[in-house]
Automatic annotation (TrEMBL):
<keyword id="KW-0472">Membrane</keyword>
<dbReference type="InterPro" id="IPR040690">
    <property type="entry name" value="FtsX_ECD"/>
</dbReference>
<feature type="transmembrane region" description="Helical">
    <location>
        <begin position="246"/>
        <end position="267"/>
    </location>
</feature>
<dbReference type="GO" id="GO:0051301">
    <property type="term" value="P:cell division"/>
</dbReference>
<feature type="transmembrane region" description="Helical">
    <location>
        <begin position="194"/>
        <end position="217"/>
    </location>
</feature>
<keyword id="KW-0997">Cell inner membrane</keyword>
<dbReference type="GO" id="GO:0032153">
    <property type="term" value="C:cell division site"/>
</dbReference>
<dbReference type="Pfam" id="PF02687">
    <property type="entry name" value="FtsX"/>
</dbReference>
<keyword id="KW-0812">Transmembrane</keyword>
<dbReference type="GO" id="GO:0005886">
    <property type="term" value="C:plasma membrane"/>
</dbReference>
<feature type="transmembrane region" description="Helical">
    <location>
        <begin position="287"/>
        <end position="309"/>
    </location>
</feature>
<keyword id="KW-0131">Cell cycle</keyword>
<dbReference type="Pfam" id="PF18075">
    <property type="entry name" value="FtsX_ECD"/>
</dbReference>
<comment type="subunit">
    <text>Forms a membrane-associated complex with FtsE.</text>
</comment>
<dbReference type="InterPro" id="IPR004513">
    <property type="entry name" value="FtsX"/>
</dbReference>
<feature type="domain" description="ABC3 transporter permease C-terminal">
    <location>
        <begin position="196"/>
        <end position="311"/>
    </location>
</feature>
<keyword id="KW-1133">Transmembrane helix</keyword>
Length: 321
């Protein structure tokens, strides 16, 4: 008789085994979600702590994302000014402009002759009457070189400047990259800060979830002892607690995303009047769909890991008397 029962169990189709496996996990997931719903105060406080912990690195990531978006639109900031010798002929200047335009690092070349340079200087400086008293034009001809997007970074723009200054028609070149280097250093510092803060808060999330699951295990100690007495496997006992950690992570991740959205909306209202003074149409970006999904996946993964570490340690220590 026992052989027939064992034989019949082995003959259960694979698809039915998969369906039953899915049903069991679905039952555990919905049951643990119900337990969280029935304890709104304690569960809510835990989720709030997790949400704040997750929202801090997410908000810094949004800050870095917007800073990179702004700098990518400042391609003119790396513009190079080449001041030519006074005795350079127009034909030599034309050949020089043609050569520079052929460089793969260059996107645009503008030539400003001495007459145009003096005219623009009079309009900008306000010394038009004083300059008209001079016997000759003291300003040199200038070639304005705009690098491609790949060469707008401080290091690449500086290398391009050194290359252009080797031309015999060029007296000297000018590139104001000091502020670009500072901006690049600030963005790099922010990226490192995001990484360091994320690692610290990951540890905090693991500790919070692990401690929450530990308390849940202690509260159900008697139930776990009975389950072990009747032959329940450790996987069966652990499953509800693992789903508890996953749900904590999912809900906290969604709440963290909402907090970041509200923060960006609040900051955008303060930034728009300032950008309006500079005729800028820039609008702060927030977390996209892929980043939202990544946040939820990471949060749920941290919830599962924190629960797993706590469950493996404490459930094994519970043995029926």
């Amino acid at each position: 008789m026992a052989k027939n029962i064992a034989f019949s169990r082995n003959k259960v189709p694979l698809y039915r085994q998969l369906i039953m496996w899915f049903v069991r996990h679905l039952q555990n997931a919905t049951a643990t979600l119900g337990e969280i719903w029935r304890a709104p105060i304690s569960a809510g406080m835990t989720i709030a702590v997790l949400a704040v912990s997750l929202s801090l690195p997410a908000a810094l990531q949004v800050l870095v994302k917007n800073a990179e978006e702004i700098t990518s639109s400042w391609q003119q900031a790396a513009e190079i000014s080449l001041f030519l010798h006074d005795n350079v002929q127009e034909r030599a200047v034309t050949n020089l402009v043609t050569r520079i335009e052929s460089y793969p690092e260059v996107e645009r070349v503008d030539y400003i002759d001495k007459t145009q340079a003096l005219k623009e200087f009079k309009q900008v400086s306000g010394f038009g009457e004083a300059l008209s008293l001079l016997d000759s034009n003291p300003l040199p001809a200038v070639i304005m070189v705009t690098p491609t997007e790949q060469y707008t970074s401080p290091n690449n723009a500086k290398r391009l400047l050194e290359k252009l200054q080797q031309q015999k028609e060029v007296d000297f070149g000018r590139l104001d990259i000091e502020w670009l280097q500072k901006l690049a250093a600030i963005i790099d510092m922010l990226e490192r800060t995001v990484l360091a803060l994320a690692l610290l808060l990951i540890l905090a999330v693991l500790l919070v979830i692990g401690n929450t699951v530990r308390l849940a295990i202690m509260n159900r100690r008697s139930e776990i002892e009975v389950m072990k007495l009747v032959g329940a496997t450790e996987a069966f006992i652990q499953r509800p607690f693992l789903y508890t950690g996953v749900w904590y992570g999912v809900i906290a991740g969604a709440l963290a995303w909402l907090l970041v959205q509200l923060l960006v909306m609040w900051l955008n209202q303060a930034v728009q009047p300032l950008l309006g003074l500079y005729q800028s149409e820039f609008e702060m970006q927030t977390l996209g769909l892929s980043e939202f999904i990544l946040l939820i996946v990471c949060a749920s993964g941290l919830g599962w890991l924190g629960s797993y570490l706590s469950v493996r340690q404490h459930i094994k220590a519970i043995e029926p008397c």
